[in-house]
Amino acid sequence: MIATNYNPVKSKVLVIDEGLEKLDSAFGRNTKILVDELTKRDVYVSTAVSEEEALAAIVSDASIHGVLLSWELTDAGKDGKRPAEILLDELAQRHRNIPVFLMAKNSEQVKTINEDVMTKVEEFVWMLEDTADFIAGRMIAAVDRYRAQLLPPFAAALAKYSKLREQSWSAPGHQGGIAFTKLPVGRAFFDFYGENLFRTDMGIERGQLGSLLDHTGPVAESEKYAAKVFGADRSYNVTGGTSGSNRTIMQASMVEDDVVICDRNCHKSIEQGLMLTGARPVYLVPTRNQYGIIGPVPASDMSVESITNKIETSPLTKDLENKDPVYSVLTSCTYDGLCYNAVDVENLLGQSSPRIHMDEAWYGYARFNPIYKDHFAMRDGAGKDDPNAPTVFATHSTHKLLAALSQASYIHVRDGRDAIPHDRFNQSYMMHATTSPLYSIVASNDIASAMMDGEGGTMLTTDAIKEAVSFRQAVGKAFKSHESNGDWFFKPWNAETVVDPVTGDSYPFEEAPSELLVSEQSCWRLDPKDKWHGFKDLQDNWVMLDPIKVSLLTPGMSEDGELLETGVPAELFTAYASRFGIVPTRTTDFQVMFLFSIGVTKGKWVTLINTLLSFKRHYDENAPLTQVLPELVSSNPERYGNLGLKDLGNEMFEFLKKHDPGQALNDAYSTIPQPEMTPRAAFQQLVKDNIELVPADKLAGRVAANAVMPYPPGIPMMMSGEKFDESNSPQIEYMLKLGLWDEMFPGFEHEVEGAEVVDGVYNVLCLKA
Questions:
Q1: What is the percentage of the chain residues whose pLDDT exceeds 90?
Q2: Among the CATH numbers 3.30.70.270, 3.40.50.2300, 3.10.310.10, 2.40.50.140, which is that of 12-150?
Q3: Which tops the pLDDT comparison, 94 or 394?
Q4: Burial of 455 (0-12, 13-18, 19+ CB in 10 A)
Q5: Closest CA to 270 of 677, 707, 730
Q6: Mind listing the pLDDT tens digit for each residue in 349-378?
Q7: Which end of the chain is more exposed for a tag (fewer CB within 10 A), N or C?
Q8: By the 8 A CB rule, do 721 and 677 touch?
Q9: What is residue 393's three-state secondary structure?
Q10: How far apart are CA 427 and CA 538, in angstroms?
Q11: First and final CA of the chain: distance in angstroms?
Q12: Pairing state between β 259-263 and 325-331
């Protein structure tokens, strides 16, 4: 027999009663007898003797399956509510439908219980009248019912099927993981993941689970459930990431020579969709501010007049007979957290395009918090009364900022003009899906939906926003404190003052009531009159800043985009922070960005604040690099061995002042190079090997064979088939400056996908001349 670490999870009950500390009372003794009875029946019992203890358990322990709660807790309570009422409210938010047995001394006490409490309680228990055997039996039955309905459709079917322990004579060959246990290396792998992963990894012959390709059985139920939760007419499970989701939508929506409208701030999968279909793009060009923060496409760029002009003047579309766009795609929110007003976007783009695709890969949580109202695709009731409303697609990377495994993604559809029926759409879906899906990815998608359903989604997103707001305010206070002393510190990128729309009171951001910032959308909208955001020609109520995407600015650049006399390059902080296991999601010359996802634990940001303070202290002291960045010194001793942290920062800042690669990059993204052919035609030349590697200083006039994308965030500054300008190419200028930076600061090299560094020079694959 092969020993495994598999152990079915016991039922778990939380008992909340201060009587457990007063066993000399009849009530306390009876509660203890009940705890013993539950334990005897193989139930794990956790206890709390106060409101504070109970609240901590409810918030931190999601493995509770039932609660026994004393109505007689004598803590102070709050806002006129008894402690038990406060705990019931928290349970309703965090443990939806969990069975709660309310314990009282006798039936007379029911007279003190109001209707709201009654709706949140499964049963009432009279501790001095009922027997422990009876109460334990009722509790276990309620717990079993709760556990049976806890999992959403597909996850429940998968868990049930895994218990069959079938004897399989089909794929996969590891046979529930047994093959791995036959050699030491395989056994190590098996033990690392545990048996359940392998038991649930099975072939598509198992009809009990339904079909991912045909959308039947539990898979179909899972997708119907997701559509309900996310507000879609239809939803599709995708196991190939949102790259696969985007390509699926594009292949279903367009054919060769169709005109499509593409956000230039797009993921590379959008260009891949153009390669697959042969569609001809015109581009929406997003703005960027002085810090390189990616802003919105101006509303004026989405007007019928602007789009018509693009189509009439683009070399790819001007000679087409049919110039009506069939599809448009917009990335929302942007990588830096700017979220479009989706109502206005649909009203504008819908005049030109019958289908609008909102790539919300980093934004799947927006529907579940009122602060994002109107700023996401799948809005309740949207387009229902308008026969001319566009069909809207939304793609979500559930693995990015929801709770799902990597590669998990959703396609959500709201049918409108030129809708694509399921049978047609599914042909494209099957092209980009696999006949051998990893069912744990599908199950994690299902779980992500269930976690966001009801009050759970609101609670999770509100908690994340609260943490982000607390961090922003803490950094803001530290910045103001240092600034008042003529000193420097990191500055949060958000509005400097906010107004309570109810009272009219104005507050500095860092002093505003937390409740206002957590709940009021107007605190996050970009006002065209404000200077802090750095974006010009904004339409009112066009975008809002996502509270959970937090950018901090280092000193060195004015609000007008001019470099100051001194500065602190953000690259240096990122290198410093990485030594402490802190990895920002993005770094530019003077910006560092952090994501506050639903997985961020309370107070985690305090460690980040400490790291900011520690960096400042070491920077001001000019601490030796041998002390603060020893790995950097060990890999480049001659370059960095005698430098301090501030020495290196000064060298970096002088480079930025002299060469200004950030401005070159902004210019590269603000201009559209001349397209010589479609991305599809360029890719075909690559397949035929009609390409060659060309160094940056010889790129003028050459046609890129693949997209060129600086990372992060991986947005193309050149698309396949576009020509580098012969006289003034900011794309060439940027790569030349990047090569100089990499040579001068080894260990701080940049990544540019689509370019290859040869002997310190960036090279790009181009069509042969």
A1: 84
A2: 3.40.50.2300
A3: 394
A4: middle
A5: 707
A6: 999 999 999 999 999 999 999 999 999 999
A7: N
A8: yes
A9: strand
A10: 41
A11: 67
A12: parallel
